[in-house]
Amino acid sequence: MSADAPGPGPGSSRARGRLPGQLRTLVCERSVLDRADGSARWTQEGSSVLAAVYGPRQAKLQKEDAERAVVEVVYKPCSGPQGHLDRSLELEIRGILEGVIPLGMHPRTSIMVVLQVLQEDGSVLSCALNAACAALVDAGVPMNTMYASVTCALTPDEQLLLDPDAGEEQAAKARFCFTFPHHFDLTKAVDGEAVVSTSALGCRSHGSFSSDHLLDAFQLTRLGCERVAIFGRLSLTKSFQAAGSA
Amino acid sequence: MSAAVRVRPHQPGADIALIECGLGVHDAPLSTTFVCVGDEISTEGEEGFLRGHGTQVVDGKLVATVCGVVERVNKLIYVKTLNSRYNAEQGDVVVGRVAEISGKAWRVDLKSRQESKLLLSAVHLPGGVQRRRNAEDELNMRSFFREGELISAEIQSVHGDGSVALHTRSAKYGKLTYGQLVEVPPNLIKRQKQHFHTLEALGVELIIGCNGLVWAAPLRADRVAAEIGMDPSDAASEATVAALPPNKAQLEVVCRMANAVRVLTRLYMPVYPASIMAVYEAAMDDNVELRDMLEPDFLAAVVRQEAQRRSSAMQE
């Protein structure tokens, strides 16, 4: 697969030689907010999302559920008020989080996840999902499994690009955002080997594509999630080293 | 005249850098019991272990549900996170704020996962008399505790769904007035035999709530009476004597204690009477002004003191 893809601007990492299957630089800052129970800022080069988690805490009477915790997601775009698209993203994110958090453990509580998009440069939904995962870990909310999310774009000439930026997303004829749960097999290596599940937690697509494209994107994003998982664990052990040894 | 308000730029991670430099933990080996969500916790050699917070059993294996450090206490295995909300346990002394009054119970906010309930029948009536609460008591609930007031109480029971019941069935529990509240992460507070500390030499009363709320107030004669278990009617007479608001000197001592707790919180050090007194005495020895106690210089001095204490403890 050649590195020349239509769409990306001259200053983008793809023009600087980023391969189609290569992710952008990842940065994760944890515990950035004082008042939230947990917070994280996840940056994928040009895209950056700040996630804050409040909970589990007492739910409002109208919203409380006697048997399980209630997950509320607020997604705030970079600029402008919330639109119908943002509401639809909130539903998608809530569905994924409800699949990952054991809700029966905390009845009558609410877990609120607020996502604020700070910078938009493609793959924003993936960035937001990854930020939410890091913030939930920071808050100490119990989860069944960690997850990672990667976006993939299908260019007009049938090429799949991982972690597209804004220009590539606009030029693409379809894009997919896949979320995979993962865990670490500690018996294989000292720091554990990332094992990404073969079933996805979530899939959000946009545009027109064939089933072959969907399955290829599924496989490609699964490989990408492995790298996000390794990065996430590394960043977590570093932040633990600093604070936990004090 | 110096400015009343000092503004400093926010430097995230500055405190962590202080701790790293002071305690020399740059290249400290990571504890091998660090686990992440989904990691399996080894239970080899342990028969009949008890599963604690942060774990769940999946396919017969013990798996972590939070990221943290595995702690083993006798047969209990649990995962301790850096941040978490307070988990109520029976018998804990807590400090909470009354959120609302609803039909025969006060709802008290403990900064935990759910609000707790303080039933009218679980409150210590004045005069120590034990009687059935009637409708008049219910109408006069506000005369006991109003919305927004701070109270100290003990956890009576924790139900299966996580809801908590409190009681104040002793003269030492009750409304807290004329003092300062400091919020501390609950992980920094260890459960100890005593949570009420009266420092008579300084004239300060300290309540270290297990839910992370620490209360410092000037010592009052009626509180001392309650501590030593005096007859409630005598205690009431002492109360009328001591109902005056505290003077400036007393308040300054209370502020210093509260600042000492804040310093420990910033440096992520455990909060208990000995550590609070160590910080307080360090501030007094170095003649640190009240408002300079949270400055980076004093924080660095506290870190150095802690490093010395640790190295001397290791040498023993």
From TrEMBL, chain A:
Report any Pfam family annotated for this entry: RNase_PH
Q: Which UniProt keywords apply?
A: Exosome, Nucleus, rRNA processing
Subcellular location(s): the record lists: Nucleus
Q: What is its main location?
A: nucleus
| Domain Exoribonuclease phosphorolytic span(s) in chain numbering | 22-142
Give an example GO cellular component term for this record.
nuclear exosome (RNase complex)
A GO MF label = RNA binding
According to the UniProt entry, which residue ranges have a biased composition of type Low complexity? 1-14
Q: Where is this region: Disordered?
A: 1-20
A GO BP entry is:
nuclear mRNA surveillance
The UniProt family comment states: Belongs to the RNase PH family.
- Return the protein name: Exoribonuclease phosphorolytic domain-containing protein
Q: Which organism is it from?
A: Volvox reticuliferus
From TrEMBL, chain B:
Protein name in UniProt: S1 motif domain-containing protein
RNA-binding: is it a keyword of this entry? yes
**Looking at the keywords, is rRNA processing present?**
yes
Q: Where is the S1 motif domain?
A: 91-169
| Any one GO CC term of the record | nuclear exosome (RNase complex)
Q: Where in the cell is it found?
A: Nucleus
Under InterPro entries, the record lists: Exosome_cplx_N_dom, Exosome_RNA_bind1/RRP40/RRP4, KH_dom_type_1, KH_dom_type_1_sf, NA-bd_OB-fold, S1_domain, S1_RRP4
